[in-house]
Amino acid sequence: MDVSCVRVPREDGEATRRRLAEADLIAEDYEIEVADGALFIPVTDETAVPDEFDVVAREVERRETQAMPADLLSFDPTYERLGDVVIVDEDDPDRAQALADAIVESDLPVKTVVNRASKVKGTERIRDWEVLAGESTEAVHREYGCEFALDLATVYFSPRLATERHRVTEQVAEGEHFFDMFAGVGPFVIPAAKRGATAVGVDINRDAVEYLRENAERNGVADRVTAICDDVHDVADDYEGWADRLVMNLPHSADEFLDAAVALAGDDCVVHYYDIQHEDDPFGPGERAIRDAAEPSYDVTVETRHTVRSYAPHEVNVCLDARLKRAD
Known about the structure:
By secondary structure, the protein is of the alpha/beta class. The protein contains 8 helices and 17 strands. The protein folds into 3 domains: 58 residues, Alpha-Beta Plaits (2-Layer Sandwich); 68 residues, CATH 3.30.300.110; 171 residues, Rossmann fold. Helices cover 22% and strands 34% of the residues. A 7-stranded mixed β-sheet has the order 13-12-11-14-15-17-16. Strands 2-3-1-4 form a 4-stranded antiparallel β-sheet. α2 links the parallel β6 and β7. One of its GO terms (molecular function) is methyltransferase activity.
């Protein structure tokens, strides 16, 4: 069957697809095809397509309908994907198992389904998991062109923070000295190194540091990454005055490490300080803590006050991007 399609050069395909999607003109029941250096995008209404586009009739294949978990359940499910591991957060065990069964039965590429069984706890920031389907809690997560191998059972990792990690690492310049004080498996360190920084990641969790080293190799940046398993307080003397940029993503207790951050900071250093505070004054406590630790040795300028996400009722997870310039 012939279908109306927008024909564009292949190099313009993604930009055109986005414009047609924004106008709700893409015929989702048909496949987008590539032929002779052109992309053929099926549309629902050729008369609504902007005149600048070339519309042709073409025989294209129907898209196979994929079964999703929501199609198999009597309730609207919520879940997160981490590679081929799916994470759910259900208090009711029967509902949790029904969701896991639907995920496995669906067309999602999944090998394991886990349910959160505790909050993040301990100095190594791990949580308990209930395995509802499958066996392995290991995964390879991909975000913004990087790959991260990890094991949910032994390390902390949140896919929800991908956008925030990208916001920070997009600021990294080639040649920077980048220091992550609580590095985990490297979701800040690896993209910083890929942007040309010399990066150091410290974590007290030995499993996380082993994955950090593996991920540096996996992403081709092992020559620019140093991974250290230790308390950052015990590392700061070795890197005194070294850092151009510091990440302090330990929002419940980052203030306890500001003395180490000040020791690590170079003459002009940006500190990305994460905090969890009441919505009435989300940034004030962190800014006061940074100033108390850094002044008068450094002049402190808060360049960005950024809300990352809601954390709990009336509490928010925030980030302060603070520039420390050594005082004359």
